[in-house]
Every structure is written in C-alpha cells, then in structure tokens.
Amino acid sequence: MKKVISFLVFLIVSNGFGQSLNRDNIQQFADEYFVESVFTLNEFLQLPNIGSNHDNIEQNLKWCINALKALNFDTAILTSEGVNHLLAEKVYDLKSPTILFYLQIDGQPVDPTFWDQNDPFKPVLKVYDKDEWNIISWENLTKNFNPDWRVFARSASDSKGPAIAFLQALRILNEKGISPKFNIKILLDFQEELGSPTLPELVRNNRSKFNADAMLIIDGTRPPNNQPNLTFGARGIATMRLTVFGADKDLHSGQYGNYAPNPVFSLSRLLGAMKDERGYVLIPGYYDGIELTDDQKTLINSVPDNKEELLATLGIAEPETIGETYQESLQYPSLNIRGLRAAWVGDEVRTIIPSEALAEIDMRLVPETPAERQIQLVTNFIESHGFYIVDGVPSEEERRKFPKLIRVESRIGSRPFRTPLNSKLGNWLGLAMTHVFGEGNYSHMQTTGGSQPIAPFITELGISAISVRIPNPDNNIHAPNENLRLGNFHEGLKMCLGILTQPYD
Length: 505
What we know:
alpha+beta; Aminopeptidase
C-alpha cells in the first residue's frame, strides 16, 4: 500500500498538479522514515568529530561522501590551507535556481568525566523520569515514539542532528521519486567549532563552484519557546586573552602578603570596570552605530518569548538590561568573560601569591560593530587604566619600570551577517514553514546570539542567507550531556521536506 501511495504522489508532483507535497504527505514520510533516520544519526554520532583532529575529519569526510554519493550527488574535496572541505552538487533542472546549503559536521571537544554516560561518542537514548534522565534501550524506538525522549551524544544538536535531518529528507525524496524544486549545492564544514579559519580563502578561490541564488544554513538552536524557527542573521565573534603579571615567580603568601601585589586583584578591578551591574558595557564607543527604530523593535519582538518562563529556565532572578527584551539584547555586541585562571583551587589549593592571572574574553558582534574596532576599544580601555602592554613575558627592565603589566592577545573569528526579515528568501521560507506547520506555528528571529561562518559567502557571492533551526533550546551544546529532543528531530525532517519541495520563484 505504501508503494502505491508513493507512486500516486510521484505522479501528482511530476505532472505539476501540485507545487509541493501536501501536509499529510510530509507527515506520512516523516513518520515512515523516522526510526531509520534516528538510527542513521546514531551511527554518524559514533564517529568522533573534533575539528583539530585530522583523523576525525577524514573519517567524517569519508562517511559524508558515501552518504551523498548514495543520493547521486557529485562530490568534490576542496582544500584550503591544508584543510579539507566537501562540496556536493546535484542538478535537477538546468532552468531552475540553485540553493546552497551549509552543514556543520565537527563538534566541540569533550571531557568524558563530566558526562552522565560512558562515552560521549556512544549515543544513548534517555527518558526524563523522577527528576532525572534515565537511559532506555534503542529498541524502544521500534515500538513507539515519544517526542520527549532525547539522544545524548556530542554533536547530537550541534550539528549532526540537523545535518542528518536534511540528508534524510533528501533520501526520502530520492526513494519516492520526487525531485526538489531547485538545484542543490551542499558545503560540509569540518572546522566550524574552530571558527572555520580556512573558509574565507576557500570561498574566494572557488566562487564559481559556490555560485547560487541563495543560501540556507542547517545549523543552530531554536529560541526558548522551541517553535520551529528561521533566523535571519548571526553575530560575529572575536576573542581576547588578557594576562596580568605580578612577580616573576609564585610567592609564599605568608612571607610576601601585604608586600608583593597579587595580579588577580589588578585583573579583577580591570574586568569589573568593563561592565556595570546592569550588564551595560562601559568601554567608550562600544555600542556606537546601533540604533533600533520602533518598527525594527516591533519586528524583532514578534518572536513569542515569555520572560518569566525564560528566567525560570535559566535559573536567574532578573536579566541584564541591554535592550528591553531578550530579542533586543541579541541586536547588540556582548562582552563575556568565558574563563579565568590563576594558581590552583580545590584539592590543589596552596597559600601563594600567583605570578600571573589570565582572563579569556569573547565578544559577540553585530554588523555595526566590526571586530577590529571592538578589539581596539578594549585595548584602549586597558591602557586608560594604567596598564603597560607587553608582547610576551615581561623583560626584567619592564618589570622594574612598569607596575601594571599585561599581555593582550586577540583573534577574529566569524563575521556577523544580517538578512532583512522581508527578503525574498525569507518570504519563500515563510511559505514553506506555513505549508508544513500552519500560520503562526513557527517563528522568525532577526539574529541569533551565536556565530556562524557565513559572511564570506554573502560578501563574495552577493547572496542572502537564513538559518533553519531544528534543535531544542535546552540541548547543552558545547557542554557535557549535549542532547537532541526526538520531537525536534521529527519536526526537522518535516521542515526539510517542506523546504525542499517549495518552488523558489
């Protein structure tokens, strides 16, 4: 019976009686292939995927090539600065437009000792019961499907889960004899978590290979309400490392306390001066160039966020006040202390005055606040607080001459991008999402708080880009116990099926 239904669907679509699969067909196909798709994800997650590990990259590259060749895609390995990327392409109709899809394949490093399972690269299926997550057998999937069950593994959400949802949607259409409504190119990135450092050169050197009418990013987490989501931009990222120096060696706190300055206090005063209690960055010029009109605020705040629910989810009493809402806060650059280090703590604590104190900073950027400018503003601020900046370990002469010594290191990662909410690409995706979920049952955001390495495609190719969001917001990406809710994965299959069969006019 399934084969008869599929054949009838094929006849309808191929004869032009419908421009896209109807909602029932999409639901049917997602249901039919759901279990198989989850087991495919399980298999893929078992390949470690740390972007700095060459063997990891090669294993994942090989798996992806085989998967795409099985779908009759032409594949090519493109190398940039010694790093391999994978480009796949399939032409369905020479007269049709081409959509370029971006898939992230690598994941963040892991410390297995902090995970509630033996190996982060051996996925487990869990159910929430009695205030804790309990492992259940994968065989449960063959009996029924609970949308609140979750797959726990590194990269389950960020971003192998979304990648598999997209590839499985292609497989479904391929096996049903249904062609997407446009030609497809796919770039698979194996170093996104490293900031995709070789991607700008790759795009510059291969413009013709990446040429497309628009770009979709199958990556990123949904907003707190967990509705199916489209996100029209991403903040960029720049990082800084600040090392404040004290004595040229660690000192005994009894012998030299009250005499030798502790660099931790000097660093703490500097960091404390950077932001006020509201979370507002006090570095002069940090927010220059950003102005939100009333109309922009109305569009931005159309996402149905619930402030009280969000505060409860985060476990905080009140938010910082950069912007009047959560969505508005994402339109500004952030300044975050992502790590601190000085001497030892815990069982290894000792009574010393450390010789240095280190702070790691990340700044999420918007188009109005370029990385170079923000880094210089922070550097100027540091100097205005009496610090002398050194290039490395201070020399004896510098130690004798300057009481406040600091080393400032910086790195620029992904650039920000922003696509208008009323763009042609956004309107097309809106039709696809409405077709799948119904009017008002999905959301769109102007920008995400995170970063994506998409700016090179926009600047070099002159195309628009939008991110299709599948994973649940409480997915612990980058942290221990990363997970993907099965209900989100199921919706992801439907989202991809709807998009792939929506004509791009």
